[in-house]
Amino acid sequence: MTEPVSPLTPRPVRFAAVGQWWRDVTFLHWAVAPESVAGFLPAGTRPDVLDGVTYVGLVPFRMHPIGGRVGPRLPYVGTFCETNVRLYSVDATGRRGVVFLSLDASRLLPVLGARISARLPYKWSSMRLERSGEVLSYTCRRLWPGPRGASSRVVVRAGRPVVAGELENFLTARWGLHVAWHGMTLYLPNDHPEWPLRDAELVELDDGLVAAAGLGNPAGPPVSVLHSPGVPVRFGVPVPVSA
Question: Which ranges of the sequence are coiled-coil (predicted)?
């Protein structure tokens, strides 16, 4: 049975191996047919579906110090801009998750560390977040690895707080990630407080990261645009997923 869509995790993390802050988060989403993205998911998972469709997400934000019960906080290395292209997955035990197709980040050291240790598709990029009142501008230009020069510019105007419904929770309240790791699939759980969400107006979008991930250019504007000041996030210990 698939776990419920909920604003809080049904599986609280007992031991936090890593802690992070995700700040100034913007969520852009496009609805797509599940069969169009199934081939991008790791073994043992399938597209997570709501009302017959799944979603492609483009999510720019700021990452703040990395640290937990193991390892020190790293103020310079751990604070950087990041933009993710992601899909939504569910495994045979019903755990809902995220599958990252790319994670562009502006610090080389965490990019190398995540690529080597977790096999996550991190990319080193030149990035910037600028804010003027309620208008946030995120820019990204990929440096390594390719496709070199893939870029993105997202400008949004944050609006009023929204009460999250089923769709908003489906797109934002994801309680783990699925990742292919040395011939197997792992599930890395996380938990965090309920997202404080605001509606947002898309002022400008010029994105090549979704296409660079192999999905092609999205058809039309995003069907959902949300913003959040952010949440603290705790990651637990990864567990294998049965194929």
Answer: none
Going by C-alpha positions, the residue among 148, 163, 152 that lies closest to residue 194 is: 163
Torsion sign across C-alpha atoms 169, 223, 199, 104 = positive
Q: What pairs with residue 18 in β-bridges?
A: 235
Residues belonging to the chain: 243
Structural contact between residues 209 and 105, judged by C-beta atoms closer than 8 angstroms: no
| Percent helix, strand and coil across the chain, each to the nearest 5 | 10, 50, 35
Which residues 6+ apart lie within 8 Å of 2 measured at CB?
A: 48, 90, 94, 96
Sequence-ordered list of residues with C-beta below 8 angstroms from that of 35, at least 6 positions apart, any chain: 47
What digits encode the pLDDT tens for the residues 224-237?
999 999 999 999 99
Among 155, 135, 147, 149, which residue's Cα sits nearest to residue 28? Answer: 155
The pTM score is: 0.95
Please tell me the distance from the alpha carbon of residue 103 to that of residue 87, in angstroms, as a whole number: 12
User: Which has the closest alpha carbon to 229: 69, 19, 27?
Assistant: 27
Distances (CA, A) of 171 to 105, 179, 237: 21, 18, 23
Q: Three-state DSSP class for 7?
A: coil
11-28 residue pLDDT tens: 999 988 788 899 999 999
Tally of CB atoms within 10 A around 158: 21
